[in-house]
Write a structure and sequence with these properties.
The chain is of the alpha/beta class. It contains 11 helices and 10 strands. The strands form 2 sheets. The chain has an 8-stranded parallel barrel, surrounded by 5 helices. A two-stranded antiparallel sheet has the order 4-5. The C terminus is likely disordered.
Length: about 350
């Protein structure tokens, strides 16, 4: 069993050294380092030094293409769509999304360059985190009026690929056929990159948003260039949130959906638990999410992110210090060989929520 967290927002090495020592004290054995577009532009040698230092302190290192191209998870922005505006994702409402299309050549070319650089760091894994087509809930960040009916991508690259694969013109509505096409496109895009990285001797980890179809998970799990499978147990604190007593089961069921495939193809399973935007009084949800992930069979568990996102004001937990403390206590309760208190939950089933 391995535990970790994500680290970003600091590239000053003397502070990084202290923070990695803190991460180790919290019971972590791995760290996710985010390497965004701005870092590729200005901070290559810095990140190499950070990777070396993290490994020196006994941490397995994973490097994440943080929000690169606007198609991976991350609390940062992408400049690539400005350089390749003709390869942006086109929405059904006619707007050009601030993200490159997964079927366009510029994004793959850039990420191969990104891999070339990261391969020099000596990191243990590249973590391809939450690959996705543009998510329209982000509209508000750019001053757009949110359009819940908007979807992408309808660009020329997608239309051409769809016609080649199906012999049909590209649909004007977000049909199930279009959604399956987007999954195939995501698969093809990712496998091009993981195989490229593997050819350079780099191992790959992959974490997915909830609700992927079984054929997609099977294709990814059986791929030899993917070495760690993963997902997340996140939920929103809204009317649909699980009740406090159900958080552990919620995490366990999300984990079991992926464990089926990671176990079948003998890949470790990495699950994210939520350590951001946790309201005051709900801090123990991080404990239950960790326990549920363990119950579901996760091999690696990580909290996003470092110190409960205390340094990211719009994403911080209300009592980030308490969340961080509870995370550490729970991680150490497993690494120290003590069985945590609480009942063991039997695994159940949960249907996906693919969109």
């Amino acid at each position: 069993m391995k535990f970790g967290t994500a680290y970003f927002g600091n590239i000053i090495l003397k502070h990084f050294k202290k923070d990695m020592a803190e991460v180790r004290k919290q019971g972590c054995s791995f760290i996710v380092l985010t390497f965004a577009e701005v870092d590729l532009m200005f901070h290559q040698e810095t990140y190499k030094k950070m990777t070396v230092e993290a490994k020196k302190q006994g941490l397995i290192t994973l490097v994440d293409p943080w929000a690169v191209g606007g198609i991976f998870g991350g609390e940062t922005l992408s400049q690539l769509p400005s350089f390749h505006y003709e390869e942006r994702q086109l929405r059904n409402d006619g707007k050009w999304a601030p993200a490159l299309c997964l079927n366009a050549p510029a994004l793959t070319a850039y990420l191969k360059k990104w891999v070339d650089v990261v391969a020099t760091f000596g990191a243990d894994y590249i973590l391809w985190d939450e690959p996705h087509f543009y998510l329209n809930w982000m509209d508000g960040y750019g001053g757009w009026k949110p359009n819940p009916e908007a979807w992408s991508c309808c660009c020329d690259f997608c239309q051409s690929k769809f016609k080649k694969e199906t012999g049909k013109p590209f649909p004007k509505t977000h049909t199930e056929e279009v959604k399956e096409f987007k999954r195939r496109s995501t698969r093809d895009f990712l496998l091009t990159l993981t195989r490229y990285a593997a050819a350079k001797g780099q191992k790959n980890a992959m974490t997915f948003l909830p609700g992927e179809k079984e054929w997609f998970l099977k294709d990814m799990a059986q791929e030899k260039s993917i070495h760690v499978m993963g997902g997340e147990t996140y939920f929103e604190y809204d009317k649909n949130r699980p009740k406090a007593q159900d958080v552990r089961r919620y995490a366990m069921e999300h984990t079991r959906e992926l464990k089926v495939w990671s176990e079948k193809y003998e890949k470790p399973l990495l699950m994210w638990v939520k350590g951001f935007l946790i309201p005051k009084g709900d801090e123990k949800d991080v404990v239950e999410s960790i326990r549920g992930s363990v119950d579901g069979g996760a091999d690696w568990i990580a909290m996003w992110g470092f110190e409960g996102m205390k340094h990211v004001s719009d994403k911080a937990c209300k009592d980030a210090d308490k969340v961080w403390k509870l995370m550490g206590n729970t991680f150490r309760s497993y690494t120290n060989g003590r069985k945590p208190q609480g009942s063991t939950i039997k695994a159940g089933s949960r249907k996906g929520v693919a969109v």
